[in-house]
Inverse folding.
């Protein structure tokens, strides 16, 4: 697929997200400027205050637990069960999307994140909870784009080389349903990256 050419109906795009503080909220707020509808998924939590809140079904949650467990075979992280209501919710963002745009940090195999987490897998992964949504999207063979705030660049997951490949241009939305997600610790360049995607999609 040519990521720089789109023939979709720009009036019917839906952003699937989580409504969390940080990147999720920025995808929602900037998207609203362009008329993008956002579905902010949650599961049995009173702390979710997005006006676009969508409560997921028990079946989607149970499917999410399965998908998170599968993703963690690659990520190899510990103590995930106490966060399962948040992580399994991420599955719905992936399930109903064909593209995923994430703001975060890519960790190379064997490297450590700024918080000291070591990537023990053989592949590039994304730091934090965002990494689970990204990994599930890769498992589903979706188009996956990550803006690395440290490198200040967009990357696309390559199913040929099994790594994130740097993009020379800002990617754009080419599907009616996409996931706009990312870290709670969004930086100014992450906010700009989100706006760049929307502007390139709608103002090209």
């Amino acid at each position: 697929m040519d990521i720089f050419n789109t023939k979709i109906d720009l009036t019917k795009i839906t952003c699937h997200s989580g409504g969390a503080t940080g990147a999720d909220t920025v995808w929602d707020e900037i998207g609203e400027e362009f008329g993008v509808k956002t579905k902010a998924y949650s599961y049995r939590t009173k702390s979710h205050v997005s006006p676009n809140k969508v409560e997921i079904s028990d079946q989607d949650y149970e499917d999410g637990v399965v998908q998170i467990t599968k993703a963690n075979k690659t990520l190899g992280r510990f103590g995930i069960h106490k966060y399962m209501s948040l992580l399994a919710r991420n599955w719905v963002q992936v399930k109903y999307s064909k593209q995923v745009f994430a703001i975060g940090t890519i960790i190379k195999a064997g490297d450590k994140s700024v918080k000291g987490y070591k990537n023990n897998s053989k592949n590039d992964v994304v730091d934090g909870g965002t990494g689970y949504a990204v990994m599930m999207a890769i498992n589903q063979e979706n188009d996956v784009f990550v803006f690395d705030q440290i490198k200040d660049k967009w990357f696309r997951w390559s199913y040929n080389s099994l790594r994130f490949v740097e993009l020379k241009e800002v990617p754009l939305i080419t599907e009616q349903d996409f996931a706009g997600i990312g870290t709670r610790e969004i930086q100014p360049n992450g906010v700009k990256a989100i706006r760049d995607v929307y502007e390139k999609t709608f103002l090209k």
Remarks:
- The longest helix spans residues 58-75.
- The CA atoms of residues 59 and 65 lie 10 Å apart.
